[in-house]
Amino acid sequence: MSNWNLLSMHGLVLLSMADNPDVTTREMAKDLGVAERSVQRAVSDLDSVGYIKRKKVGRQNHYNVNRKKLLHALSSNISL
Hints:
Number of domains: 1
Order of helices and strands: HHHEEH
Oligomer: single chain
CATH topology: Arc Repressor Mutant, subunit A
């Protein structure tokens, strides 16, 4: 059986941040089994379009997922 994911890298990273707002890109990469640079690119993309906000806390980032934008995006792309 092939190895595949139902969610994209962006979706997996978003879920990881929603579960733990203080997770590091290194931890996400390890958990997802991907390169840290792939996670950094997804985080940057998510931040640039407003799905998350990053806040520096000491030397680490704290991530805040914009749930309203996420729900709006999901509802506008679903047609029954």
